[in-house]
Design a protein that fits this description.
This protein is an alpha+beta fold and 390 residues long. Helix content is 21%, strand content 24%. It binds 2-oxoglutaric acid. The site of 2-oxoglutaric acid (AKG) has 11 residues, from strand 12, strand 14, strand 18 and strand 19.
Length: 390
Amino acid sequence: MSRKRTIDAFFGAAGAGTPKPKKPRDISDGLHETSRDRAHLDGLDTNINHEVLDKAPAKSAAEELGASQITPGKSNDFSSYPAYPFPIPHLPPALAAELPSWPASLGRVINDQPDLDLLYFEPYVARGGGGGGSARSLFEFLRAELPFYRVEYDINRGGTSTHIRTPRWTTVFGLDDTSRFSSANSSGDGGGGDTSKILDAKTGRDVSADKFYTRYKPRPIPKCLDGLRLSAQEATGCEFNFCLVNYYASGADSISFHSDDERFLGPLPAIASFSLGARRDFLLKHKPVPPPPGGEHTDTMKNAMSKPLKLPLASGDMILMRGPTQASWLHSIPKRTGKNATDGGRINITFRRALVKPGTDNYYNYNVGTGPVYKWDTVNREMRVWKKDL
Ligand SMILES: O=C(O)CCC(=O)C(=O)O
């Protein structure tokens, strides 16, 4: 049973019936009052440590990307694949040239709450310089070039059917660990021929007709996102085979409290989550748990369950959620109202690793679906239904 995204239904996709959340506390509320400001700024608090990542992978992201990825710019520099509605351009040269220098800052560990383990890069994609830096350019590029969907689905709870319209734009690329695309790499650059086949990762058998791959046709991560995937793998030591993208057009778009704890991700999934564009609050709260036998919850645990932590994610930030975080915590991007309702757009990119086939079907079902393809209209500055030129 697919659970992912039904969270929008359970918690009120349109906002109706959503319980009014308690006022979130800033993440720095978890620190000693005395050291709060300094700890927040320079990580001196014992609970929030700068982590020096000293892994030395055999190949750097830049090497793995190869020369073609870092010197694009010709008009034929696109990722093409039969299951893409249209070819997806490679990164513009300036961005591709900068990619090897990311992350732009060291990750900071946040693990001062029960069962929470985050690594926070502020920022990962540089946002300095005029106009928001590379983070803004990457945002503009991805919004303009990716196919998006506004997925709708019905859920049935206790005999009552509810129609859900996902309160944000979504898209997804990738394939679970059991299989691979038949093209030489996963960047959709196979150049035709039999590139639309899906092969068993171990035996090489053609599994394109498997029931989990036929409702929606899986498609490789295009090069413009694969560079970021490789960079995130190198920076975190984690492996990712899926890329989910959310576009929040304004403060009215949101994602309700949920955890990415599906069985197809395994027991302690690591998820790298990038923010580009408008700043939005990311709320975290501990899942409800029963008190210890014969005892009471500690104050820290009571707080973690009742008062959400707030990370005001800015353009270029990346937050790695790992260890027990998904099993124990819920996260959300709440709607913003009042003067924030017309916030600029925000893109969120998450890289994840689906271990088994049901994950592939689930991700395409809730992030692509069966509705029309939308593409950003640069003139009218809104998503418009995309139609193939006849
Ligand atoms: O937009 C975000 O930062 C969060 C996205 C998210 O929670 C999800 O896609 O599961």
